[in-house]
Design a protein that fits this description.
273 residues, alpha+beta, Umud Fragment, subunit A, 2 domains, eight-stranded antiparallel β-sheet, elongated
């Protein structure tokens, strides 16, 4: 009799479990996830550090990058810098998609890690797309810079209907530039606090100004505003003076201007005075 030890073949259930543990990454799925949110496809591929960096670079180029363009660069550089910022953001986004696709194709023998489940991907998407980016945008718009479109000709010829401009939201804040006569300011419309108006400040508290047939004194804590196009402007002559806390921004520069004939190229980068 042969004394060799008999070794039974592997149990079929063990083979099945080993096979189920393999989870090859699907390139189309990785690319689609990064298309929805830069870095999400990298997370699907198990590249946590790379996922974080793709998202951070995209977010920083998209939002704080706009602040640098609007507030810190010379006005002549506004339009080309905006174009470069947009191209850079799209480039990072596209690179995230391509990298996720290529990396997923090389992970044919990938085994899922404990944290890799669909609920986590959805949570990351909701937090980044629904909380982080919106809050970053809201913070920038509230305290740094905000974009506005001019809907009327009440400030013509300084501002024209179809001008798109940046407003400096650091204006009229403690430690920042104080309101001055001649400033073109953004303020909350007194008769509808859901709207913003843009007019020129012509009277500070204590100033005597002419309003129609009267001469009046601007009350404390208020400013008197007028439109440059006096015959076609609703301003302090109709709705009265504006509380200083409602003055929320100062016009900085025009970054796009669109009229009946298309783009008004000569107005791009102008700093209204």
């Amino acid at each position: 009799m042969n004394d060799r030890t008999f070794v039974p073949p592997p149990h079929s259930s063990e083979s099945s479990a080993s096979s189920e543990a393999l989870a090859p990454r699907q390139p189309w799925r990785a690319a689609l996830m990064s298309l929805v949110l830069p870095g999400l496809g990298q997370l699907y591929n198990g590249e946590v550090n790379r996922a974080i960096w793709f998202f951070l670079v995209f977010a920083l180029l998209s939002v704080p990058g706009l602040v640098m363009v609007a507030l810190w660069l010379p006005t002549w550089a506004t339009v080309p810098a905006l174009a470069l910022s947009l191209l850079a953001s799209l480039g990072v986004w596209g690179l995230s998609v391509v990298q996720a696709w290529r990396r997923a194709g090389a992970l044919a023998d990938w085994r899922l890690r404990a944290w890799q489940f669909s609920g986590l991907y959805l949570l990351v998407l909701l937090v980044c797309d629904g909380v982080v980016l919106p809050q970053l945008i809201l913070q920038v718009r509230a305290t740094q810079v905000e974009a506005f479109r001019i809907p009327s000709d009440s400030m013509a010829p300084t501002l024209r209907r179809g001008d798109f401009l940046f407003a400096d939201k650091r204006y009229n804040r403690p430690g920042a530039q104080a309101v001055q006569r001649g400033d073109i300011a953004i303020f909350v419309y007194p008769n509808d606090r859901t709207q913003y108006y843009v007019k020129r400040i012509v009277g500070l508290p204590g100033d005597r100004v002419e309003a129609g047939a009267q001469t009046l004194t601007v009350p404390p804590g208020q400013v008197f505003v007028l439109g440059d196009n006096a015959t076609s402007s609703k301003d302090s002559r109709q709705f009265g003076t504006v509380p200083l806390p409602d003055v929320v921004g100062r016009v900085r520069q025009i970054w796009l201007s669109w009229g009946d004939g298309g783009v008004r190229w000569s107005r791009l980068g102008l700093t209204p005075q």
